Amino acid sequence: MKIRYYMIVLLVLCTHVLYAQVKFTSSSSRSQVGTGETFEVTFSLNGNGSSFTAPDFNGFQVVSGPNVSSSYSSINGRTSVSNSYSFYLTTIKEGTYTIDPASIVVDGRRLLTSPITVKVNKGQIPQQNKPRQAPDLNVAPSELAKSIFIKAVVDKSSAYQGEQVTLSFRLYTRVGIVDSRLDKLPDLNGFWSEDIKNQAPQAQWRTEMYKGVKYNVADVKKTILCAEHSGNITINPFEMTFIVRLQAPSTGGDLIDQFFGSAYKDVTYNVKSTPVVVHVKPLPEAGKPSSFTGAVGKFNITAGVDKSVLKSNESLNYNVKISGAGNIKLLKELNAEFPPDVEKYDPKITDTLMQDANGLNGSRIYSYLLIPRHQGDFTIAPLEFSYFNPATARYVTLSTKPILVKVSKGIAESNVTAFSSADKQDVKLLDKDIRYIKTDHTDLSDGSRYYGTFWYFLLLTVGPLLCIAGFIYRNWNRKNNSDPVLMKSKKAGKMAARHLATAETQLKANRKNEFYDAVFKGLYGYLSDKFNISIADLNKETIVSALRSRSVSEELITQLIDTLDICEMARYAPVTHLSEQEVLDKAKNIINNIEHEI
């Protein structure tokens, strides 16, 4: 029984340890910046979360963000996920600022980061990349919808499932922007997504013609999308709030006002992009090879080993590199096959990737640790890798070359070399890791000495008896606690004892007025609870009547009334014929005697 208890406690502790491994941290690229300089703030989570809430960034201006990125890795069968949310900030005012914590929800719990302190020193304000076209200040507020808006632009409106699509939220404006705030990011349900980090945090403005009108244009956010299923998938709106500067209307016939122009005013305006639909085509079934696992794009594959000559029970690394452009982060494990007398461990995955306007490109390396157990020559069979090329709408199958490995006789002991990132060999004996099966005779008890004994039947009987006893006690407890008046009467003595304990404390502190007040409240509260009489209706007549109806002796009633009179008199004049300790003892005795006589 104790073993089970310890196991439960151990499982609970392990659960807390697993929760403790999830960390939500914050970092800043710089702790000190000059006025007008730009720096990056990143919030990182080593797991999956939802409902990310960024701080207000008071004292800073957000020039880019949130830039969301995710990474996945699988080492020896254990998959790890990390997510980061980065912002580029700038300021033009000196001082020391504190960036409040960000929050995120993980498994129903809300995690917070630590605050970040940034000191802003006086520096040279760099020239900003301002819009090329001068803003039009003479725009009526009713015409803002045509003067500032956001468009969701995709590089292709029709794509295959898994094909990369670049989504840009493009800001068009003809008015001056004083400030901006991000309100809502689209959910992008149905897509795997990763934001393209802007290497130049400040907006890169350019001039474009749209419907015959010249606008200042900047991409405020770019994201790489890969559709997870076929069909028409809608991209929800991207929402921002801008403060734009407009010319205030003329106030009248003032000649100076008409000549020089009127003053300016700042207007808050909410902008929401129009939803965009992406038509996702399913991958064709015709010609789909058996080695296809979902890779879409254009890739190359190479394979090799770090050594082709070794001794038995020594290790070698078999590396498979897949490079190219496409949904490389969504690649699944390879179906690598090795000879039966070669021990194989789950691969270590290393990604070297880049995100740009053309999508995701780079390489992924699968590193397998192999340990041949016997001498001889063995061949690592060619590995097939298939992908779908959306440019040609065809499947492509690539294959690596076979690799010959020569193994000579090694040490007689069976050693296992553990893989490490530094390529060091940590040796562990097999018979200390997994015990061999015993083949000799082992004396095991069949349990017949316990079955059918007195203790066996006693333990079988104790359980039902305890359940019946618990059921009876529960009903008895409910019945006794169902009457609130009766419960209040039963607890009257305990409530009075609290007041009298307070009175004793006041007596030790030599606060006489507070002492008599506590004794009076204790007696009155006891009588109110005991006889179910409200404090407002409680007086000497109702007290005497209630006590006599319950056959309390006249002597005890007289002592109670005298004690109440003493407490009332002590409020206005000192009591000389009885000490405070005698009054306290008398009140305790009265309550005890009433409890005995009722």
Give a quick summary of the entry.
Helices cover 25% and strands 39% of the residues. The chain contains eleven helices and 33 strands.
What would you say this structure looks like, in words?
Helix content is 25%, strand content 39%. Strands 22, 24, 25, 26, 27, 29 and 30 form a seven-stranded mixed β-sheet that branches. Strands 11, 13, 15, 16 and 17 form a five-stranded antiparallel β-sheet that branches. A four-stranded antiparallel β-sheet has the order 1-3-6-5, with no helix packed on it. It is α+β, with helices and mostly antiparallel strands. A hairpin with a 4-residue loop joins strand 29 (384-389) and strand 30. 22% of the residues are buried.
Labels describing this entry:
598 residues, 5-stranded antiparallel β-sheet, disordered N terminus
Question: Layout of helices and strands, plus pairs?
Answer:
Blueprint: H1 2-21, E1 24-28, E2 32-34, E3 38-45, E4 50-53, E5 61-75, E6 78-90, E7 95-99, E8 103-106, E9 109-112, E10 116-121, H2 144-147, E11 148-154, E12 158-160, E13 164-173, E14 176-184, E15 191-195, E16 206-210, E17 213-227, E18 231-235, E19 239-247, H3 255-260, E20 264-272, E21 276-281, E22 292-305, E23 309-311, E24 316-326, E25 342-344, E26 348-356, E27 359-372, E28 376-380, E29 384-389, E30 394-399, E31 403-408, E32 415-418, E33 426-429, H4 430-433, H5 454-481, H6 484-490, H7 492-508, H8 512-531, H9 540-549, H10 554-569, H11 580-597
Parallel strand pairs: 2-10, 12-21, 22-29, 23-31
Antiparallel strand pairs: 1-3, 3-6, 4-8, 5-6, 7-10, 8-9, 11-13, 13-17, 14-19, 15-17, 16-17, 18-21, 19-20, 22-24, 24-27, 25-27, 26-27, 28-31, 29-30, 32-33
